[in-house]
Amino acid sequence: MAELDIQISIEEGNWPSEDALHALADRVLEAAATYLRASQKQPFPKMVPEVSLVFTDDASIQDINAEWRGKDKPTNVLSFPAFPVKPGKVPGPMLGDIIIARETVEREAAELEKSFDDHLTHLMVHGFLHLFGYDHNNNTEAEIMEGLETRILAVLGLSDPYEGQDLKMEP
């Protein structure tokens, strides 16, 4: 049984096909949902929750970042929870939106010497955790969120993306 209803929209950018993105998102977000339920005892709504993934380009995400966060620059991923939620609390049936920018993902993957798909997987997990109320605004929050990311990525067969790095708090 599916844990999530995943909606995909390719808005801008040179992304893989919708089918390829859906296959990746199904695998990644279902693994993340299963992990949160099992290890964090994360309650889910009675209905199958919906998450929206929007794939776009740097120009588009820069506009969104400027409008909603007051940061006039592109970023890799933005998450917009449909309802305010705290980790461990029941989210609404619509989890929210995850928006990812192609050029930034590509550039960061090259800088990190990781495959595009591995970095995209990490950003999907990162954005998904934001929809459940996880954040990285201080060291304590960052440690919790990055620990979850690392363990979920391990379930997916990927290495620790933060190994050897300081905690990545939001500037």
Automatic annotation (TrEMBL):
SUPFAM superfamilies: Metalloproteases ('zincins'), catalytic domain (SSF55486). Single strand-specific metallo-endoribonuclease involved in late-stage 70S ribosome quality control and in maturation of the 3' terminus of the 16S rRNA. Its cofactor is Zn(2+). It is an enzyme of class 3 (hydrolase). GO terms for molecular function: metalloendopeptidase activity; RNA endonuclease activity; zinc ion binding. This is Endoribonuclease YbeY. Belongs to the endoribonuclease YbeY family. Keywords: Cytoplasm, Endonuclease, Hydrolase, Metal-binding, Nuclease, Ribosome biogenesis, rRNA processing, Zinc. Its main location: cytoplasm. The keyword Nuclease applies.
